C-alpha cells in the first residue's frame, strides 16, 4: 500500500476554481517511469519527473481531467499574477513584487515549470532589494526595478512558451 511521506516536497499545492487552497500529498506509489507522459519536447522548461507526478493523479489517462484542471488553473493564476506585477511595477512596490514572485515561484515549482520558477525566484530576490541569487543587498531601488522589468518580461515569455506546450499536450490549442 502506498503511504504518504512526511516530506514537504511530497506535497503539491493547488488552488481550486473558487480560490480555496488544496493540499495534495504524493504517496510512494506515485512514482512513474521517465518519458511515459508523451509531452512534446519542452527542453529544460518542464521538469518531467515533477510533472509526471501530477499526471499520476489522473484517474483516466485519456481525459486527464484532474491534472488538466490544475494546469489550467495555474494558467489563470499566472496571468492574474503577472497583471498584479505590472501594477506593482507602476507603483514601484518592491515588497509586493517580491511577494508575487514568491507566490508564482511556488505554483510553477509544483508543476515542474523550471524556467518560470527560476525567473520568479529572481523576481522575489529583486523585490527584496537583493541580487538575483538573494545573497547580496542592493540598496538602489531603481536598479532593482530595472532588473524586475527585464525579469518579469522574461518570466512572461517563459510562461507563454510552456503554456503552448501544455495546451498542445491537453489538446487545447
TrEMBL record:
The modification Phosphohistidine is found at residue 102. InterPro entries: AHP1-5/YPD1 (IPR045871), HPT_dom_sf (IPR036641), Sig_transdc_His_kin_Hpt_dom (IPR008207). CDD domains: HPT (cd00088). One of its GO terms (molecular function) is histidine phosphotransfer kinase activity. It comes from the Eukaryota. One of its GO terms (biological process) is phosphorelay signal transduction system. Residues 1-17 have a biased composition (Basic and acidic residues). Residues 1-23 are annotated as: Disordered. GO terms for cellular component: cytoplasm; nucleus. Residues 63-169 form the HPt domain. Keywords: Phosphoprotein. Pfam families: Hpt. This is HPt domain-containing protein. It comes from Coniosporium apollinis (strain CBS 100218) (Rock-inhabiting black yeast). The lineage of its organism: Eukaryota, Fungi, Dikarya, Ascomycota, Pezizomycotina.
Amino acid at each position: 500500500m502506498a503511504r504518504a511521506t512526511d516530506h514537504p516536497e511530497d506535497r503539491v499545492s493547488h488552488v481550486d476554481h473558487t480560490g480555496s487552497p488544496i493540499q495534495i500529498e504524493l504517496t510512494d506509489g506515485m512514482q512513474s517511469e521517465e518519458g511515459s507522459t508523451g509531452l512534446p519536447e519542452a527542453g529544460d522548461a518542464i521538469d518531467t519527473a515533477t510533472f509526471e507526478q501530477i499526471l499520476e493523479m489522473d484517474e483516466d489517462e485519456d481525459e486527464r481531467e484532474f491534472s488538466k484542471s490544475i494546469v489550467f488553473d495555474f494558467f489563470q493564476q499566472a496571468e492574474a499574477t503577472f497583471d498584479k506585477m505590472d501594477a506593482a511595477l507602476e507603483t514601484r512596490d518592491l515588497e509586493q513584487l517580491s511577494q508575487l514572485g514568491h507566490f508564482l515561484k511556488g505554483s510553477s515549482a509544483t508543476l515542474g515549470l523550471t524556467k518560470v520558477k527560476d525567473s520568479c525566484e529572481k523576481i522575489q530576490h529583486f523585490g527584496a532589494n537583493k541580487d538575483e541569487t538573494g545573497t547580496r543587498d542592493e540598496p538602489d531601488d531603481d536598479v532593482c526595478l530595472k532588473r524586475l522589468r527585464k525579469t518579469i518580461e522574461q518570466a512572461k515569455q517563459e510562461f507563454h512558451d510552456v503554456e503552448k506546450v501544455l495546451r498542445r499536450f491537453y489538446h487545447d490549442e
